[in-house]
Prior knowledge:
- The protein has two domains: 11-283, no CATH class; 284-328, no CATH class.
- Helix content is 74%, strand content 0%.
- The protein is built from 14 helices and no strands.
- Helix 1 (19-32) crosses helix 4 (74-120), helix 2 (36-51) packs across helix 4 and helix 9 (192-203) crosses helix 10 (212-242).
- It is globular and about 65 Å long.
Amino acid sequence: xxxxxxxxxxxxxxxxxxxxxxxxYFLRLGTTGFGxxxxxxxxxxxxxxxxxxxxxxxxxxxxxxxxxLAPGPMAAQLAIYLGYAHYRxxxxxxxxxxxxxxxxxxxxxxxxxxxxxxxxxxxxWLRQSGVNALAAVQVPAASGLASTLDWSLLTQIGLFxxxxxxxxxxxxLAIVPFLYGGVVTEYQWLNEKxxxxxVAVAMITPGPxxxxxxxxxxxxxxxxxxxxxxxxxxxxxxxFTVLPAPYFxxxxxxxxxxxxxxxVTAAAVGAITGAxxxxxxxSIVDVPTILLSLGTVALLLKFRKxxxxxxxxxxxxxxxxxxxxxxx
Length: 328
């Protein structure tokens, strides 16, 4: 077996696919994969294990177990592990970047576009009401046009999001309460409305939901803030995947490890519940939002596979139609 991180696999272990085929697959999944971490993990199993046969079921299950064991976004960790399975460090690095990069670029475009639109050409009803939270962000700071970087702020952002990536177990919405405590309460980088907007943006973009950190970083410190926040969040999960990966086949099935995974999973369920409460308290504030939330729950109960972006986009369109009527 090879020992080098960047060497190709031995002939005896030569996979049925090239590294670039795997990278292109994760680039496509990161661009078109909606539904959150569980759905993304399901797509990987369907495509790579069942249909293509590139990854063995054993390697996939080991990747899932490690992703549940370590803190950080589960889908990204699974992608990194599957890249590591046959192509080691180089494969893990390229697949991780390919999976995360598309959604990062999408949230950057959304952040820049939303800020520019609200600042330069706010709609009439918005000018009259003055309720838009995103317009409160100073455009020079948020668009990265400042002549000098605020290294103190960027350091704060890096340290905070590194803690988020290194110590928060569970993926998707499990990270929301931690982010809220730091971004809104402790540092007051964003207000509550801006924070809820950032989470909503992550829900309607493909790829890992945790990419909301890029949107938050952009609102706080422009493009440098987005890059620092994303790198600080995803670097720990990358390290927590590639460092134990060589030993996980041997020790991953120990009873103590399995018990730890069970405990972490239960805690993640609690964290996700907390995230729902945090978002609900700040989003459900009147009769229209109550009706929208109840309607969404009813739709999800009836159509369990209804994609989240469809629901959120529909609710957004309803909100745009109803708001001028209620605030004319």
